[in-house]
Design brief:
The structure is a homotrimer of 159-residue chains. Chain A has 159 residues and is of the alpha/beta class. Chain A is built from six helices and five strands. In chain A, helix 1 links the parallel strand 1 (5-10) and strand 2 (34-39). Chains in contact: A-B, A-C, B-C.
Chain lengths: 159, 159, 159
């Protein structure tokens, strides 16, 4: 039987949506499905390496943008439930109570299991990110390259 | 001709997004397409039975969470247009003017028409929901089971 | 080889999500892929012609709604980063720095390249929009017609 392929486009920069994407990616790999994630717009925040922030070779806007926005999985906000800021803390506590791993663990799982990480070139350029600011698995590519790959996959989601 | 299959993942807990999902589900059933909806994260709020809220066997966080969050279709907020809270009322009035049925009618339609309702086990566990707090059609399953089914569908959407 | 088909459902009424949808649509057309976009709910704002707003034959709610909501691509807000309102200005400046075209250019590109524009009849009726308030390419259709088309496409996204 031919190998199945799952293709995710992560547009959102939120903890809960990134969690959904990475749970699907990890589960699919366990089913021996090929998985690619194309990170675009706010989705790029997830694959920033928090240790590798630079301001070199950036415009004033790009520097400000890089400083103001989340650096890696732990800094992502929730999409909902930000009741006076307790939402994310509460969700994390509830996850811990059930021994559900945090986002960073699913990210590391995806890296180990061979999920393909692609970043949208246009978004990277506009936001002023440099290749070395991302985790090493990230490969920068055009939207067209993503589309060619996604069109031949069995399943595509925009998250 | 082989029967077509539509697979929706409802992640969002908002009135308008749930409405979009259920309109698609009902329309697809009228075209004799098989339909499954996998409810995850905030999407679970839609399939809570408002009469069946319990605090038994729940941690303090799970109790608080269950109380603070929407119980069933009528309590879901809008994703947009919450101008001073008039957004949802206004949309509901406008729907009534055009004889468009409310969300609860589309939910009942989907139940009658044999849409499959699946709930994400990890989300259910983390949020502390019990099987009996959901409408009776809901079957709790792992993300892997959802993925196997979705990968063999003709169309998948993340809503 | 049979021609591939991409089918997008644009539900969101935000600048960044509309940009993502139109970048995909334009890129797909450059790969000679057939593209349809089904505009539903807040997604309809993108295909409003800003010059053609009318209050004729509308209920009071429909008039208010038409006035309060974005008229065409330039008025769409950002989905994120609305830090004290500077988010969108900043993004637009950053796009200009990189010579990335604004949303309106991608919309015009999609019109020229033959992307099919469909509008959800139920949403149009509820919001009270008239055919002549949209850009001329827009064809109003039922959710079922969209579904039949989408089910036979190679790729579908809900944005």
């Amino acid at each position: 039987m031919e190998k199945k392929k799952l293709n995710l486009l992560l547009f959102s920069g939120e903890y809960d949506k990134a969690l959904a994407a990475l749970i699907l990616a990890n589960s699919a790999r366990e089913l021996e499905v090929d998985v690619s994630i194309f990170f675009a717009f706010w989705g790029l925040f997830l694959v920033r390496d928090p240790e590798k922030f630079t301001t070199e070779d950036k415009s004033m806007y790009e520097k400000m943008f890089g400083m103001m926005t989340p650096k890696g999985p732990n800094e992502l906000p929730l999409s909902k439930m930000n009741f006076a800021g307790i939402g994310k803390e509460m969700l994390l506590e509830m996850m811990e109570e059930d021994d559900a791993p945090p986002l960073i663990a699913f990210l590391k799982g995806a890296q180990k299991k061979g999920v393909k990480f692609c970043a949208c070139k246009l978004s990277v350029d506009v936001m002023g990110f440099k290749q070395e600011e991302f985790i090493p698995e990230v490969k920068i590519m055009e939207a067209k390259e993503y589309l060619s790959d996604a069109l031949s996959s069995n399943m595509q989601l925009f998250i």
